Amino acid sequence: xxxxxxxxxxxxxxxxxxxxxxxxxxxxxxxxxxxxxxxxxxxxxxxxxxxxxxxxxxxxxxxxxxxxxxxxxxxxxxxxxxxxxxxxxxxxxxxxxxxxxxxxxxxxxxxxxxxxxxxxxxxxxxxxxxxxxxxxxxxxxxxxxxxxxxxxxxxxxxxxxxxxxxxxxxxxxxxxxxxxxxxxxxxxxxxxxxxxxxxxxxxxxxxxxxxxxxxxxxxxxxxxxxxxxxxxxxxxxxxxxxxxxxxxxxxxxxxxxxxxxxxxxxxxxxxxxxxxxxxxxxxxxxxxxxxxxxxxxxxxxxxxxxxxxxxxxxxxxxxxxxxxxxxxxxxxxxxxxxxxxxxxxxxxxxxxxxxxxxxxxxxxxxxxxxxxxxxxxxxxxxxxxxxxxxxxxxxxxxxxxxxxxxxxxxxxxxxxxxxxxxxxxxxxxxxx
Length: 432
Ligand code: HAM
Hints:
This protein has 432 residues and is α+β, with helices and mostly antiparallel strands.
């Protein structure tokens, strides 16, 4: 049996590294004062059709749709925003006096895309959504999250692209201009673009088939259709990014592939040479109509999501190693079958005290047990034989200095506390 196309298993180095990254992300969300949400992996199909948009590639070509046994139309989530908005409305978070609601989420998303490097059918996204404020401060804050995070990880070769689609009025004017522009060129566009022309001309701009045509390159730009209010919103976003020393490139061609955006849109690109075509590490923007579209009260929102797989590739490309191999605290060796019960008791007590502890489960001889303790990079080895169990006194060996100690069981935790405290000096081996 083999894994399904476009999916992957996590283990080994990748597993270690992704856990470090995930921990940094959740710590960062504490720092930013965001609240954790988790929504189901599948939702009623309508959530995504109405949320992401009926004319997007994501909804028309890429969703995993199925009927459940009750004949309901269900969809595996292709992204996180629509589900979070559904949950925000259903749980009446709009009534929360603590405005804005700042939310983060993390989990697998599913898109039936053609798999290639950096593009999977099951992939993980970390994302945030901020509800209840139309202040450009929140757009700037959201953009700062991935930028600061990538900086914290040590990534250097990234570029932030920003653009504005404007409010409904600006978008309507732009839509009209696009229709006027594309109408005489319809013959040169693909079948799908004909449908897009009727339903949502903005979607023509992210057509994967026609993207290199000249007519695409010369299409009107959103920025030229912004009304005063939209322009001033965008100017403020840029001002606040400047205030945080966040560099960005204004990219008039950036429209994003989801329907819900208004005002600011942005993407962060890995600009390392040779990274490949799928080099967008994250993307997002403002969506002031989405909560209303999904049945909630009119509430502005802004957010972004980052793909974890591309991030991991970027870390590899920039040779950033986040794994600290700092071994376990204690390794316990029962000398025979008779001491196994006593040993697992000691092991359990140490784990309850927070010491990283492991033991021999393979009935190894003493020599290969010491080998194993070295493989695990154990700081102390605790040897438990007949004598030890009888007297409740343990033999403890410091694996580095080779010093040997006799320690009463009742004093074991104190002994280790004193040893690890003695190292509390920034040496990297101290017990936390
Ligand atoms: P998106 O641009 O569709 O936006 O996806 C965000 C990120 O997810 C992409 O930049 C990419 O890193 C990653 N990603 C997308 N598809 C794949 C794939 N097939 N394989 C691997 N990685 C992928 C959204 O999903 C919006 N919900 C973002 C958002 C949140 N906007 C506002 N709030």
